[in-house]
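re: the backbone from monday

yeah here it is again, tokenized this time
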């Protein structure tokens, strides 16, 4: 009974087995004709043969032949191409040794051919790479996509299992159809590309629009391009806002220390920028120590550089206060001149020990790269971490000023020095500690700036004026005002740069600050109480 049933089902079983074998059959092997066409002829015919081989040939053999062609190891003659490595000639179809005929020529490889070979090799990753490699290859196919790539893209789509890679391949296929001779296919391709708003698709649509002759297709391309531009505009606006917040966080870090030394103590510290510079060079020194003595922990050098930069700048600030500034309290113009002279001395000392050229401070691995939020918006990790660091320092300063014994003494001495002294407060020591705190915060700003910019003797000169503008605009001695002023000026400056350029944006911001101070001399947040009457 079983054999009778098997006999009756045999035709159906045979069809099923044949279908399974067909679905799992490997790609056609690289043919001798394809190899010869890739070696001989003009560039256009060789490139077409290369694309055909990638789309239909055996991946291993095609990859081997392309490597040989790129390295100048291909010769051709008598209707055949050969891979010649050393004294041995190989058949590119079988990979076996063969006899090299007389009168063969070298296959030439110019810059255009090398570029196309690189594209073809990248395309092969669509079939043999892992998920990440296939995704990168699919994205690469979007660049310079032509109808000749359609067989290869169709083959890759048929075997692809990853949805992310499939989406990229669909976009590459649509880009290839933009070059189709069929107007309906070009119109459909434009509509599909409009769904994927990226700078690459915008470039493809723009290029096709400049050479499109069909009016109906032109209308479709313009509609698709407008849709892509609308979607990308949000990424551009958010990018400007992020760069403004990033600049504002830098200004906040720079101005926090100045808010203490100038806002609370009344010292016009023109050496504040040089204290930042000391913090940046302290970071550079710590980096060198880690690279020399504990290179296996190099990626964590920044964790040691943060306290080192604070202590180095705080120490220099304490020496400045005890050696010069304590004799000049109540005379702001003289503190300006004295600290300006100290800034020149500090810059010259740095030039003497480290040289006049900028020094290189590297980002740790965990601060490298970026976080892609939108197709045209990638947020750098070092900037994101800098923003978080700035607000962490702000929280620490606010806690010290409002919740600690040192902060109480600083506020008491600032408001009424004679009464604080009568209450037993050592005002001289409080002055030193407050100035050292402000200087240490400047050192932290230098440590942060070393991760996003150049470190050199003139580092502080670029930020000192902006720091004073932030403190004055926010309100002297007001931390909340410093935050609002720093972020506001950073965002305003970056938005104006997009319209007027960097120089005019700086001028416009300065004019705004002058007008604001004329209208409200106390700044955004005015001091209240006895301290305002003093």
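seq for it, each position gets an aa:
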């Amino acid at each position: 009974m079983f054999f009778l049933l098997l006999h009756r089902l045999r035709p159906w079983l045979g069809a099923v087995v044949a279908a399974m074998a067909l679905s799992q059959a490997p790609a056609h092997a690289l043919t001798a004709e394809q190899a010869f066409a890739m070696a001989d002829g003009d560039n256009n015919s060789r490139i077409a043969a290369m694309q055909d081989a990638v789309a239909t040939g055996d991946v291993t053999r095609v990859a081997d032949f392309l490597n040989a062609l790129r390295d100048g190891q291909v010769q051709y003659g008598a209707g055949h191409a050969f891979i010649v490595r050393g004294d041995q000639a190989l058949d590119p179809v079988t990979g076996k040794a063969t006899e090299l005929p007389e009168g063969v020529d070298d296959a030439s490889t110019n810059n255009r051919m090398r570029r196309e070979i690189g594209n073809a090799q990248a395309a092969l990753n669509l079939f043999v790479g892992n998920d990440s490699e296939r995704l990168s290859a699919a994205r690469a196919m979007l660049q310079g996509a032509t109808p000749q790539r359609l067989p290869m893209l169709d083959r890759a789509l048929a075997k692809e299992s990853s949805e992310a890679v499939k989406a990229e391949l669909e976009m590459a296929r649509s880009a290839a159809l933009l070059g189709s001779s069929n107007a309906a296919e070009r119109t459909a391709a434009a509509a599909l590309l409009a769904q994927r708003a990226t700078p690459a698709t915008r470039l493809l649509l723009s290029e096709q629009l400049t050479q499109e002759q069909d009016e109906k297709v032109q209308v479709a391309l313009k509609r698709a391009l407008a849709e892509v531009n609308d979607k990308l505009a949000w990424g551009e606006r958010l990018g400007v806002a992020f760069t403004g917040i990033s600049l504002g966080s830098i200004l906040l870090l720079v101005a926090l220390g100045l808010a203490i030394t100038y806002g609370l103590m009344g010292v016009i510290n023109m050496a504040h920028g040089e204290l930042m510079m000391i913090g940046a060079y302290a970071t550079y020194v710590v980096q060198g120590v880690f690279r020399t003595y504990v290179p296996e922990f190099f990626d964590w050098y920044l964790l040691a550089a943060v306290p080192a930069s604070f202590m180095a700048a705080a120490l220099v600030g304490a020496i400045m206060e005890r050696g010069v500034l304590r004799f000049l309290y109540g005379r702001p113009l003289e503190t300006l001149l004295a600290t300006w002279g100290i800034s020149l001395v500090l810059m010259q000392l740095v030039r003497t020990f480290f040289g006049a050229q900028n020094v290189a401070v590297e980002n740790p691995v965990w601060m490298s790269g970026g976080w892609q939020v939108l197709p045209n918006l990638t947020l750098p990790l070092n900037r994101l971490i800098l923003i978080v660091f700035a607000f962490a320092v702000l929280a620490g300063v606010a806690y010290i000023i409002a919740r600690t014994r040192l902060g109480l003494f600083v506020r008491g001495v600032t408001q009424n020095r004679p009464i604080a002294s009568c209450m037993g407060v050592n005002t001289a020591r409080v002055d030193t500690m407050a100035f050292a705190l402000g200087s240490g915060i400047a050192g932290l700003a230098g440590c942060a700036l070393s991760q996003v910019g150049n470190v050199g003797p003139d580092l502080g000169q670029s930020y000192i004026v902006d720091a004073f503008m932030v403190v004055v605009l926010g309100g002297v001695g007001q931390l909340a005002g410093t935050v609002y002023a720093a972020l506001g000026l950073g965002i305003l400056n970056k938005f104006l740069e997009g319209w007027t350029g960097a120089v005019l944006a700086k001028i416009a911001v300065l004019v705004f600050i002058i007008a604001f101070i004329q209208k409200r001399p106390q700044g955004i947040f005015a001091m209240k109480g006895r301290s305002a009457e003093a």
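The CA atoms of residues 147 and 181 lie 9 Å apart. The chain has a mean pLDDT of 83.
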